[in-house]
């Protein structure tokens, strides 16, 4: 039986429009019957998936982490397996799962049919794959335009981060988890479900997307320049070893701030504090590389 796949490609993703025809050809060659729908408005993605839920066997999403995030709610509801074509700028979820940026290789992974159930994070009614955060990351998101990402790729994250770091000012927050209440003065709080975020930075050195836990870190510095030595360590997740960084793990976290602060989930500002986070173990099924695949 020929598998029926709903193909959703974000034409505004860094490589979306340019590689749409290539993606269709590659998937049809791999034996899929495709239903292709436009996703020029990401907020419509969930409705499209729900509309086709009884007509397809899987959903294939081509785009970046923001596009994948927009599909998360409907994937949970329908339990349709997810195939990923990394066509965005950062592709952090693909990186976490070991899916290469090669379109041919990504199609091969979907065709081979190896699946893995992964966790999802949840905050104030919104699912996330990678990280939900507040503070510096929100300023980066607000500055990081589509044009900048399309032109500079992953380097856009670093360049924008350097621009906003010097403007950073600590804010007060209360973190409640594991029966404790912790008050902090911080410039960034990140709550990670997966391993990678922000163009390849690591949440924690041992984080995985199926470990059934959330990894929280809080950068507690007094002056903007104190974050500079931490930046290289953030690529490997070793920043949590620094004395200025608080490292916590749990399954259920509540964060309060004096005034509502925006929260960035997988690269999009979607909610505000006060925020309730928790992990949903083995929430959805994703196509991943088999142990013997070489790229």
Compute the average pLDDT: 87
Residue fraction in strands: 25-35%
Number of helices: 9
At the fold tier of CATH, the topology name of the largest domain is Tumour Suppressor Smad4
Runs in which pLDDT lies below 50 for 5 or more consecutive residues are none
Helix content: 25-40%
Cofactor: Mg(2+)
Protein name: Lipid kinase
GO molecular function: kinase activity
InterPro entries: ATP-NAD_kinase_N, Diacylglycerol/lipid_kinase, Diacylglycerol_kinase_cat_dom, Lipid_Phosphate_FormReg, NAD/diacylglycerol_kinase_sf, YegS/DAGK_C
Overview of this protein structure:
There is one protein chain. By secondary structure, this protein is an alpha+beta fold. The protein has two domains: 110 residues, Rossmann fold (3-Layer(aba) Sandwich); 155 residues, Sandwich (Tumour Suppressor Smad4), CATH 2.60.200. Helices cover 28% and strands 35% of the residues. The protein is built from nine helices and 18 strands. The strands form four sheets. A six-stranded antiparallel sheet has the order 6-5-18-15-8-9. It has a six-stranded antiparallel sheet with strand order 14-13-10-7-16-17. The protein has a four-stranded parallel sheet with strand order 2-1-3-4, sandwiched between helices. A hairpin with a 2-residue loop joins β5 and β6. α1 runs parallel beside α5 and α2 runs parallel beside α3. It comes from Calothrix parietina FACHB-288. Its cofactor is Mg(2+).
Descriptive labels:
295 residues, alpha+beta, Rossmann fold, Tumour Suppressor Smad4, 2 domains, 6-stranded antiparallel β-sheet, 28% helix, 35% strand, globular, transferase, phospholipid biosynthesis, NAD/diacylglycerol_kinase_sf
